[in-house]
Design brief:
The chain is an alpha+beta fold. The chain folds into four domains: 70 residues, no CATH class; 140 residues, no CATH class; 40 residues, no CATH class; 157 residues, no CATH class. Helix content is 38%, strand content 12%. The strands form three sheets. Strands 3-4-7-6-5-10 form a six-stranded mixed beta sheet, with helices on one face. It has a two-stranded antiparallel sheet with strand order 1-2. The chain has a two-stranded antiparallel ribbon with strand order 8-9. The relative contact order is 0.10. The structure holds zinc ion (2 copies).
């Protein structure tokens, strides 16, 4: 059933606007927190803020409906994975947008729960992946000997999320501003230099505001929250990637093709082909940094179907059971991660006659209940390969960094803090 959204652009004196708004407010009732608030999609709040239904009604009337909010995913509209280039790259920044909103909600919940002393004050919404940062970062007993120091990174994120953009700014934090601008940059394909110029001018006009120095700085901050990616040069004939022991090579060992477009150019040399790799481990660790996602990560241990012969999740399947029997050591820790890999190619320009392809490798985790593991927000984009030729048969070449990471996750695992139990454990992972 399609949702009628035509009213949002209507004149506010129009009767249809008011009836559309009334239906929308009804819809919000299914997406409220315990404290009776729902994400406000007005142009100012833009789903970052949680408001009462009455305030949402006033906000939409006064500020208008957010122009960026096309799919009402916070208000019950199902999300279909869209295979277009515009949706693939900014997804990381969209995730950041969600993360900030979640951190805020968590702070809000935390304040609320300390007021009411209600230990059961958890959000009703299982989709709501709020981050349990307050508990993991401010606990003096929480000693971390983690070499990667996730807690520090999350503390950094929390600090940024709480820092006002400028003294007295109520509705935009320094992190909101950064995420929003980076999103605009990605969606509108702004060049790095134009972005830097804009930042420079904004800093000049608003000297008190906490604005990043440059695109590079902004990207570095994103990296600290586990949303960074690595650019890896690829041989133009898809035979190898310039990574690991071949990192410094200038010529492909298999076909002798040059790594760069023009090796005689002075200054920065442009590679023939590049892929983007989004490391998996920090994102898996982050799943456990949130109390809510950490809880759903052990769903599979108790979530088996009780109806004989019915399969509603891979946990009910024979592959899962066979695996458990073969590796009882891995199976005995329900927090260990079971991943699924999906590769998909698509044509970014929607024109089938154009021989340009874009390949993505997406991982999902089967630890979560069926209604979460197939949800777009739990998909993890790990590889993005662009180029005029589809890598179909050469896929294994591109998967090398991912396979290395998976191997280490399988054999050694990685020390991870679990926000649900406030303990740390060694997380291992396998590919189903
Ligand atoms: Zn609002
Ligand atoms: Zn080659």
């Amino acid at each position: 059933m399609s949702i009628d959204k035509s009213w949002i652009s209507l004149d506010h004196r129009d009767k249809k606007f008011w009836s559309g708004l009334a239906i929308f407010i009804e819809r919000c009732k299914d997406h409220m927190t315990n404290s009776g608030k729902c994400r406000c999609p007005c142009e100012v709040c833009d789903n970052f803020e949680w408001q009462t239904l009455e305030d949402i009604r006033i906000h939409i009337h006064e500020n208008g409906f957010s122009k960026h909010y096309k799919i009402w995913r916070f208000h019950g509209e199902p999300v279909v994975l869209q295979s277009t280039v515009e949706h693939a790259i900014p997804r990381a920044t969209c995730q950041l947008h969600d993360l900030i909103a979640d951190v805020r909600q968590e702070n809000h919940d935390h304040e609320h729960s300390t007021n009411t002393n209600d230990p059961m004050n958890t959000n009703d919404d299982p989709m709501n992946t709020t981050n349990d940062l307050m508990n993991t970062t401010n606990d003096p007993n929480n000693t971390t000997d983690d070499p990667n120091n996730t807690t520090d990174e999350l503390a950094e994120l929390l600090k940024l999320a709480k820092t006002d953009l400028y003294p007295g700014s109520k509705w935009v934090s320094a992190l909101d501003f950064l995420a929003k601008l980076s999103h605009m940059k990605a969606v509108n394909k702004w060049a790095d230099s134009s972005f830097d110029q804009l930042l420079e001018y904004l800093r000049f006009v608003f000297p008190d505001a906490k604005i990043s120095e440059s695109h590079y700085e902004a990207k570095k901050k994103m990296k600290t929250v586990g949303l960074g990616y690595e650019l890896i040069d690829v041989c133009r004939n898809n035979c190898c990637i310039f990574w690991g022991e071949d990192k410094e090579e200038e010529i492909c060992k298999t076909c002798s093709a040059s790594r760069r477009k023009d090796k005689n150019t002075k200054g920065k040399k442009v590679p023939n082909k590049v892929m983007r790799y989004f490391p998996l481990t920090p994102r898996l660790k982050r799943l456990y940094n949130s109390r809510h996602t950490a809880q759903s990560m052990t769903w599979h241990a108790t979530g088996q179907s009780t109806e004989v012969g019915k399969m509603r999740h891979p946990v009910d399947g024979t592959t899962w059971k066979d695996f458990d029997a073969r590796y009882p050591d891995f199976a005995s820790e329900p927090k260990n991660v079971r991943l699924r890999l999906a590769a998909d190619g698509f044509n970014p320009f929607g024109n089938m006659s154009v021989s340009y392809s874009m390949w993505s490798v997406i991982m999902t985790t089967y630890n979560m209940p069926p209604w979460l593991c197939m949800k777009e927000s739990t998909f993890m984009l790990t590889l993005l390969i662009l180029g005029p030729r589809s890598p179909r048969k050469d896929m294994d070449v591109f998967l090398r960094p991912l396979i290395d990471e998976l191997k280490s996750l399988w054999s050694q695992g990685v020390k991870t803090n679990d926000a649900a139990t406030k303990t740390s454990f060694t997380m291992r992972a396998m590919l189903l």
